[in-house]
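Work through this protein:
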Amino acid sequence: MSTLTSSPLKNQQEHPVTLDCLARPGGGAGFGSAAEIQQQIGTLPSWRLRRVTEYIQQNLDKDLTLAGLAAVVYMSPYYFARLFKGSTSVPPHRFVVWQRIARARACLATPELSIAHISRKVGFRTPSHFSAVFRRVTGITPRGYRTGHVQEDRARREGG
């Protein structure tokens, strides 16, 4: 009964015989050695990783769901999340948050934009949520980051 409910992908990883059947003797043309196949199972192909990271960068201001990201590279959400983490060492949600914070840091360098506007521009629904996430990731509030950045710019202009 348990064989009917278990995932076929899980069974393939647990049984090295499956990998040996896919491998060509001597690692010749085809699938490669069993070790190469095992390594490829745990990561996204480079074209898929590039495609999804470009999509994330272009759509940071939108609601990015796991299902939506997986659909960009034609995969199931669970399998995509597993391979994405294997490729980047972080889950997709954390990667998206880090990309949003990186974009926010660049935007905070321009004092003309309000923090509320920046929060919407990088995909947060409310400025308070943006501030909480920014502080959790960087250890400083957006206003504190902006103040420190402006002071550094002044010091550079006056000193150099």
Remarks:
- Confidence is low (pLDDT under 50) at residues 1-24.
